[in-house]
Specification:
The complex is a heterodimer. Chain A has one domain: ABC transporter involved in vitamin B12 uptake, BtuC (Orthogonal Bundle), CATH 1.10.3470. Chain A contains 12 helices and 2 strands; from the N terminus they run ααααββαααααααα. Chain A has a two-stranded antiparallel sheet. In chain A, strand 1 and strand 2 form a beta hairpin. Chain B is mainly alpha-helical. Chain B has a single domain, classed as Orthogonal Bundle (ABC transporter involved in vitamin B12 uptake, BtuC), CATH 1.10.3470. Chain B has 13 helices and 4 strands. In chain B, strand 2 and strand 3 form a beta hairpin. Chain B starts with a helix and ends in a 17-residue tail after the last helix. Classes of the chains: A mainly alpha, B mainly alpha. The interface between A and B is large, with 46 and 50 residues.
């Protein structure tokens, strides 16, 4: 295990983390919503990708689209159930409801895809490159490339476009936005559909790195928390930087200290950040107007 | 109701429930219901009274079970000692986590407590001292004998009285908590933190106090659960327990003394007597949680009240509304 290999691993991992977290970032930043079923959507989307390639025999890019479609569908169903809670901004209930959805998704995945671990093989994971004595696969490069493109696109849409303005207005003051003629309901649905699609895309790209089981998804949620909190709640650029930072930290910690405790160490980072600057994280501060 | 009739009726109801497993001939399900309800009451006082959603109560539950399992198998400790250790372990973790999350509210609080659960699960999986992913098996049976008084339970039927007593103590303690100064202060902190601060209430101390107190219930439940299962392992951290406790707390209604017990009985009863297999049970449990909050706000209790109130519109009970968080 040399340093270069770990650094490259960290960069790949970091892009994966950023991509996994982006749905939450937008969900929280744009709609002031949370989703504790995030990890289970990741799990379900990984299975859908696997099923689309192995079961349906679809080529990998099409399988990614199928998974994203499934993600959109899950997001829409969840938002439909939570619409009343969303309008009352009852975050505490939303949290519990999304946990309930997560539990349901595990049951559904077990029922549909069985309890056996599967390996998602993609044509890209067979291609290796040597880079300064370290190895990367084409799959890793794809993760980096897609993440960068996705973030650029999102940054442009949210910061520059009219869509981003609408979404931010809804986040700041749903009632005022409604008065201004914005269909708030549609924005909420769109944001949750985006959350589903984004985490499904992440799953389709990142899940080939590890075996997929119905009980994966927890680490992804923790990683997402850390990225969202470190990056500054709702900040797209911030979560990109935080993702990379956490990825490199995790790779170095896993490579040189202990791979089993990498998540624990990430949580340690979260605690340190929370203790050092708790005020910057409180959602209440966002509610009062940024 | 007259002051004599009420306790008599309560005692009668308690006796009826106590005899129920014997009549049905199934003890295991009732023991598990009593244990899980006790664990859920810990979460209940945090969710219903303090107004925060803790996702770390599975950790307190597991801490109690682990302390019991490890001490009983490795050191041959008796059941009284393991009870003390279980409570100490749960309260210590609650104290540390409570101090760390003292400044955090709402979803950030839940997020950190959830992260704590995931990390605790990772530690339990990887630390050999705790039995690693195999866990610890061969936990001896419960033995609370004092001197000549023989108090031991070798099977579920013999364990039922102890589980029942644990549940009764919990019910009494939660009732007293809600009437106590701490309980009143917790409600005030929940409903109006600013007013609470202005009235001279130390919000942090109240939060910490309720959080640590809640761990007592959950870890005591873990203590008995270790004896009931005779095995502990990292599966104690599964979201199943978390979702079960949350469902028990919200399914029937908030701040009703018997609600978590009825909620637990419904969930565990379905799993034991009307099971459709693990996966479908998970869908039912998750679905119940979603339904209770998204479709039936206020739980069954509110639905029942609305139905009962219908014949007489003038006397309709005020609809329960979520308290706006400041």
């Amino acid at each position: 295990m040399n340093l270069v290999q770990q650094l490259i691993n960290g960069i790949v991992l970091g892009h994966a983390y950023a991509l996994i977290a982006i749905g939450w970032t937008v969900l929280l930043g744009v709609a002031r919503l949370v989703n504790f079923g995030h990890g289970q959507i990741y799990m379900l989307a990984a299975f859908v990708t696997w099923w689309a390639t192995v079961g349906l025999g679809l080529p990998y890019p099409l399988a990614i689209l199928v998974a994203m479609l499934a993600g959109v569908l899950i997001g829409l169903v969840m938002q439909a159930a939570m619409l009343r809670l969303t309008f009352t901004q009852d975050l505490v209930s939303i949290m519990i409801v999304t946990l309930g959805f997560g539990h349901m998704m595990r049951g559904i995945a077990g029922l549909v895809f069985g309890g056996n671990p599967q390996v998602l093989e993609t044509p890209l994971s067979w291609i290796d490159f040597e880079l300064a004595g370290a190895w990367v696969t084409a799959q890793d490069l794809a993760i980096i490339l897609v993440t960068i493109l996705f973030f650029l696109l999102l940054h442009l849409t949210l910061e520059r476009g009219a869509l981003g303005r609408t979404a931010r207005m809804v986040a700041e003051d749903p009632k005022l936005a409604q008065l201004a003629g914005i269909d708030v309901r549609r924005v909420y649905f769109a944001v949750f559909a985006f959350e589903g699609a984004a985490v499904a895309l992440a799953a389709a790209l990142v899940a080939p790195r590890t075996p997929i089981l119905t009980n994966i998804g927890f680490e992804e949620v923790i990683v997402t928390f850390v990225v969202v909190v470190l990056g500054g709640i709702g900040s797209v650029a911030g979560s990109y930087v935080a993702g990379i930072g956490l990825g490199i930290f995790t790779a170095l910690f896993g490579g040189f200290v202990s791979p089993a405790y990498a998540t624990t160490a990430a949580f340690g980072v979260l605690i340190v950040v929370l203790v050092l600057r708790p005020s910057g994280l409180a959602l209440g501060a966002g509610k009062g107007g940024r | 109701m007259s002051p004599v009739l009420r306790p008599a009726l309560l005692a009668l109801a308690a006796a009826g429930i106590f005899l129920l497993p014997g009549l049905v001939g199934v003890h295991g399900a009732f023991v598990v219901i009593a244990i899980m309800a006790t664990a859920a009451y810990g979460l209940d006082i945090v969710v219903s009274d303090l107004g925060e959603v803790s996702l770390a109560h599975t950790v307190f539950f597991a801490a109690g079970a682990y302390a019991t399992g490890l001490l009983a198998t490795r050191l041959g400790a008796g059941s009284w000692l393991t009870l003390g250790a279980a409570l100490a372990a749960g309260m210590l973790i609650a104290l540390v986590l409570g101090l760390l999350t003292l400044q955090l509210r709402e979803f950030v609080f839940s997020l950190v407590t959830y992260a704590a659960t995931v990390v605790a699960a990772a530690v339990a999986h990887n630390w050999d001292l705790l039995g690693g992913s195999d866990g610890v098996s061969g936990i001896p049976t419960l033995d609370l004998s004092i001197g000549p008084l023989r108090l031991a339970a070798a099977n579920d039927a013999m364990l039922w009285p102890y589980a029942f007593v644990l549940l009764l103590i919990t019910l009494y303690a939660v009732r007293q908590f809600r009437r106590s100064r701490l309980g009143a202060m917790a409600m005030m902190v929940h409903l109006n933190p600013r007013l609470a601060t202005m009235s001279g209430i130390d919000v942090r101390r109240v939060r910490l106090g309720v959080f640590v107190l809640s761990a007592v219930f959950s870890s005591a439940a873990g203590w008995l659960y270790a004896y009931q299962r005779a095995y502990i392992g990292p599966d104690l951290f599964e979201t199943y327990f978390l979702v079960l406790m949350l469902t028990a707390v919200v399914l029937v209604g908030r701040r009703r003394l018997l609600a978590p017990l009825i909620g637990t009985a419904l969930v565990v009863g379905q799993e034991r007597f009307l099971s459709f297999g693990g996966e479908i049970n998970a869908i039912i449990l998750g679905g119940a949680l979603v339904t209770a909050l998204a479709i039936l706000p206020g739980g069954f209790d509110a639905v029942l009240r609305r139905l009962l109130a219908r014949p007489n519109p003038a006397a309709r009970a005020p609809e329960t509304r979520p308290v706006p968080q400041p």
